[in-house]
Design goal:
122 residues, mainly alpha, two-stranded antiparallel ribbon
Length: 122
């Protein structure tokens, strides 16, 4: 480290710091997306439970814009389960992304810590 000029060292520190900040921001965004998707999935699960608890042949309606369209029960259940599966996959992918960003953030912070701990009395 002693062979690097102050200007070069400052650029390296700025770059590592920027990486840490970007990772932290992206991580917060991903966590918010995960929370939103989990809320959506929970609402879908409750809707599926309610539809399953209904006895007999009843008319079900699906909201389309400002109107409601009648939809057969099997088709509605199939659509809701497909949407739930898609949300679960999205959540799983976002959790993978979250782990990667968390690792990237921790690595950048570790590099900064190592640089400041090894700095000779500055």
């Amino acid at each position: 480290m002693a062979t690097l000029s102050d200007d070069t060292l400052r650029k390296i520190l700025d770059q590592i710091h920027q990486t840490a900040l970007q990772s932290e921001r992206a991580l917060n965004v991903v966590k918010q997306q995960i929370a939103a998707k989990e809320r959506e999935r929970r609402i879908l699960q409750l809707t599926i439970e309610e539809i399953s608890s209904i006895q007999g042949d009843v008319n079900l309606y699906k909201g389309v814009g400002k109107m409601f369209m009648m939809e057969p029960r099997p088709k509605m259940e199939k659509d809701l389960k497909a949407e739930e599966k898609e949300l679960s996959e999205d959540i799983k992918n976002l959790e993978k992304k979250s782990k990667y960003l968390e690792k990237q953030f921790n690595d950048a912070n570790g590099q900064l810590r190592d640089i400041f701990n090894s700095a000779p009395g500055r």
